[in-house]
Design goal:
Elements lengths: L43 E4 L8 E5 L2 E6 L2 H10 L13 H12 L5 H14 L12 H13 L4 H20 L26 H9 L4 H12 L3 H5 L6 E2 L4 E4 L9 E4 L5 H10 L15 H16 L6 H14 L4 H8 L4 H8 L4 H21 L1
Antiparallel strand pairs: 1-2, 2-3, 4-5, 5-6
């Protein structure tokens, strides 16, 4: 070979000319090694046209896997689904997964159970158009965080987590995903806000205006300890006025079909509704709203507002009943059975309330004992 500048003879393969120092032309680069073709049936990665953030696509057996920033990422995605059957539901959105799961699961639920899942789904709807296989814990956690920011209850958040987990399990069964990311959702464990109870003065005020049907129902809730849903679904045939008890309850195994003694204070209101209607339900003769939600929003709140009673919900009547029972010295096991709790600790920690006067009275017993001991010395 000769120098490209001085044309003198150079050793074969020389990089620089030893006479003039000129850098010589480089040898042509070796051809780039081609990536071996993928085996048949394992899918392919290809580049999409246009200026895209993720220009590489992956597909297998007619199923579109997704788009990626690099070809390597697209190939890794194909490797992740290697050996798995990709059915028609592989690219399902969250909404499609929910519809398919609902068709299977809803027939096994009660009306209340179906309604709870419908409410949970409304909270998850911002994610409904996302591919199920693209969702991760952070997506579900965002829904929960938004619920907590809006002040929704922890029980609502737990229901959303339960639904997300159910959908994830269905998707795993169908080989859409391999991990239940919903199981890692965190729910803020705040202490529940204390429930208000009706004071003795407020109960007396209700009794003064018991001519109204809504007020009768409020007093009946206070004197039976039933949940509002339990009272509104109580059948007339399950009320035994002569024997002095009723059979009702729901929600938990301990609360279903429990026997609740009828207090003398509750008897007039039970008679009023028992003989005032002809339907199967006890409140069939009630002229107001017979749906628990509508009763709470319209009849319950309106009746209390007219009497100047604030800060109460229908569930406060149940707390009031338990507090009255504790003040009266009802035995713990008996109260647990009447309330319908599996554990008495639930009744004590959530459903009973004390006031300052009552605490002073109890502490006064200790002072009395101390004074007696001093005199004996």
């Amino acid at each position: 070979m000769t120098c490209v500048r001085c044309y003198r003879e150079l050793p074969e393969g020389a990089t620089f000319c030893p006479y003039c120092g000129k850098r010589q032309a480089q040898a042509p680069a070796a051809p780039a090694r081609k990536r071996p073709a993928r085996a048949k049936g394992t899918g392919s990665a290809y580049k999409l046209s246009g200026n895209r953030r993720k220009p590489w696509a992956a597909a297998r057996s007619g199923q579109f896997i997704g788009t990626y920033a690099t070809k390597s990422e697209a190939l890794l995605a194909l490797d992740r689904v290697a050996g798995r059957e990709l059915g028609d539901c592989y690219s399902y959105t969250l909404e499609q997964v929910y519809d398919s799961w609902r068709a299977e699961h809803f027939p096994t639920l009660t009306d209340k159970g179906r309604e709870m899942y419908r409410l949970a789904w409304k909270c998850m709807e911002p994610l409904k158009a996302r591919k199920m296989r693209e969702l991760r814990t952070a997506h579900y956690q965002g829904i929960i965080n938004a619920m907590e920011d809006e002040g929704l209850s922890a029980s609502s958040a737990h229901k959303v987590k339960q639904l997300a987990s159910q959908l994830s399990k269905w998707a795993m069964r169908e080989d859409i995903i391999t991990t239940n990311y919903a199981q890692f959702i965190r729910i803020q464990a705040d202490d529940p806000a204390p429930r208000e109870v009706f004071s003795d003065e407020e109960i007396a005020l209700l009794r003064e205006h018991q001519d109204k049907g809504a007020v009768k129902l409020i007093l009946l809730l206070i004197y039976t300890g039933l949940r509002i849903g339990e009272l509104f679904s109580l059948r007339r045939e399950d009320v035994y006025l002569k024997e002095g008890y009723l059979v009702g309850g729901s929600k938990t195994q301990a609360g279903k079909h429990r026997t609740v003694p009828i207090l003398p204070e509750a008897l007039p209101y039970l008679r009023y509704f028992y003989y005032g209607g002809q339907g199967k339900l006890l409140i069939s003769g009630y002229k107001g709203n017979r749906s628990p939600n509508n009763f709470r929003k319209r009849d319950f709140e309106t009746a209390l507002e007219e009497l100047g009673i604030t800060g109460k919900t229908p569930h406060c009547t149940r707390h009031t009943f338990a507090s009255l029972a504790v003040r009266a010295g009802v035995q713990p096991e008996a109260l647990r059975t009447i309330i319908g709790h599996a554990n008495y600790s639930t009744t004590v920690e959530i459903y009973t309330h004390t006031n300052l006067d009552m605490l002073k009275e109890e502490l006064g017993k200790i002072s009395g004992l101390t004074q007696k001991q001093k005199k004996e010395k």
